[in-house]
Amino acid sequence: MAVDNRVATNQAPPLVGHNVVLGDLALVEAVERHASREVVEDLAELGAMAGSEEAREHGMLANQYEPELTPFDRYGNRIDEVRFHPSWHWLMERGVGHGLQAAPWVSDSPHAHVRRAAGFMAWSHTEPGHGCPISMTYAAVPALRVDDAIAKEWVPLLASTAYDFGVRPASEKRGALAGMGMTEKQGGSDVRSNVTEARPTAVESEYTLHGHKWFTSAPMNDVFLVLAQASGGLTCFLVPRVLPDGSRNRLDVVRLKDKLGNRSNASSELEFHGTWAQRLGDEGRGVRTIIEMVAATRLDTVLGSTSLMRRAVSEAAWHVAHRSAFGGVLADKPLMQNVIADLAVETEAATALSIRLAAAVDDTEDPHEAAFRRIALPLSKFWVCKRTPMMVAEALECLGGNGYVEESVMPLLFRESPLNSIWEGSGNVNALDVLRALSREPESLNAWIVEVGKARGEDHRLDRAIEGVLEQLADTSDLELRARRLAGQMAATLQGALLVQHAPAAVADAFCATRLGSEYGGTMGMLPRGVDLRGIVERATPHPA
Ligand SMILES: Cc1cc2nc3c(=O)[nH]c(=O)nc-3n(C[C@H](O)[C@H](O)[C@H](O)COP(=O)(O)OP(=O)(O)OC[C@H]3O[C@@H](n4cnc5c(N)ncnc54)[C@H](O)[C@@H]3O)c2cc1C
Question: What rounded mean pLDDT belongs to the chain?
Answer without folding.
Answer: 97
